[in-house]
Amino acid sequence: MAHSLSSVSFAARVAIPAAKKPTRLSKSKHALVPRAHAHGEASTAPASAHGHGHGGGGGSSDRRPGDKKGFVEEMRFVAMKLHTREQAPKEGEKRAEPKPEQQPMRQWEPTKEKYLAFLVESKVMYEAMEEIVASGESPQYAAFVNTGLERTEGLTKDIAWFELTHAMKAPAADGPGLEYATFLKALAKNSPEKFICHFYNVYFAHSAGGKMIGRKVSEMILDGKELEFYKWAGEGGLETSLADVKDKLNAAAESWSREEKDTCLEETSKSFQMSGMLLRLIA
Fold first, then answer.
1. Cα–Cα distance between 88 and 94 in angstroms, integer?
2. pTM metric for this prediction
3. What is the pLDDT of residues 44-83, one digit of tens each?
4. CA-to-CA distance for 174 and 158, rounded, in angstroms?
5. Three-point CA angle 42, 209, 135, nearest 5°
6. Taking Cα atoms as reference points, which of 73, 74, 72, 83 lies closest to residue 30?
């Protein structure tokens, strides 16, 4: 799974694959290994040469792995380094930690109650994402409104389905999802570059690893039902939306200095940490 039962898109998410053009989007072969999330871990972004030129220009000391393919590839590269070797044999560098969400899915113990709590907390976080890009806090956010990747509507339907079908009452969102939402709203006001790091990691992870997580959990506790959270009904489907958002992310980063790009990259471990706390609700 891209960003195994680990999306975000979430404390454990699977490896985030590079977004490809619609006809070539591929799935990670390691999708069922939970993706590790660093807590307070130092950034894997190089520490050399900040603030020289724009759009990745400048001398050789300003080069970053993947920058020739666009900034999304730089973000993917940094995210992959925060995976373990088991999760990403070719690129993973993180040492595995004894956290529930970082364990193989066969060791997970999901329940309907835990899954419902995860959906509720995820919803409040995705609501914050959607509110932020529509808020106008930064001119850069406007490009990410109505991308086709939005998850709030699907989550609303899934929570209602749980309540109706299983006679369950949805809990209040007062845990890691609310914490993440509050964090994002404050972050977005002060650092568009950092917010966009979270935006990328959450949505791209959910579109790959998150789908695999949803399928496996459903097989374990919901008789294989596919939830709306894991469906994309936008024009052209998921692959088209991913390709379009990738282009918009690359375009946004074109106006950033090298220092601003590195600020974005250095936020990756925080994104893994916050999403990891959400995923821990299921494990």
1. 10
2. 0.80
3. 333 333 333 333 333 345 677 767 789 999 999 999 998 7
4. 19
5. 75
6. 83
